[in-house]
Amino acid sequence: MAAYNSDFYLRAHEATEQSARVILEHLFKYIPVPKSAVDVGAGIGHWLEAFSKEGTSEILAIEGDWVRKVPLSACLKCQNEPMFMRVGGA
């Protein structure tokens, strides 16, 4: 049984999305919004979705293959043709 199943990501969605949005909003008061971002251990992409909403145009999500059955965040499916890379394997 995987520790991070679809229920985990669905329960964490709102809090993770809000945390990413608030932190990045404060961070980008002090540094410019980056053109690109990489998230190692991206889950389903909440942080990269927040980067995308702030203006980051190139994103790369790296996650283990255990996430494959969980729907990805909207940004990882359609905006700016981002890339999602799964590592590991069975």
Q: Tags for this entry?
A:
alpha/beta; three-stranded parallel sheet; 90 residues; 3 helices; Rossmann fold; 3 strands
Short description:
The chain is α/β, with parallel strands linked by helices and 90 residues long.
What percent of residues adopt helix (DSSP H or I)? 25-40%
Q: Got a strand count?
A: 3
- Helix-and-strand structural type: alpha/beta
- Could you say what the CATH architecture is? 3-Layer(aba) Sandwich
Largest sheet geometry: 3 strands, parallel
Percent of sequence in beta strands: 15-25%
CATH superfamily: Vaccinia Virus protein VP39
Silhouette = globular
In the CATH scheme, the class would be Alpha Beta
Looking across the biggest beta sheet, what order are the strands in? 1-2-3
Poorly predicted regions: 78-82
Write the layout of secondary structure elements.
Layout: H1 6-27, E1 36-40, H2 46-54, E2 58-64, H3 74-77, E3 83-87
Parallel strand pairs: 1-2, 2-3
Helix pairs in contact: 1-2
Structure description:
By secondary structure, this protein is α/β, with parallel strands linked by helices. It has a single domain, classed as Rossmann fold (3-Layer(aba) Sandwich). Helix content is 39%, strand content 19%. It has a three-stranded parallel beta sheet with strand order 1-2-3, covered by helices on one side. α3 links the parallel β2 (58-64) and β3. α1 packs parallel to α2. The chain is globular, with a radius of gyration of 13 Å.
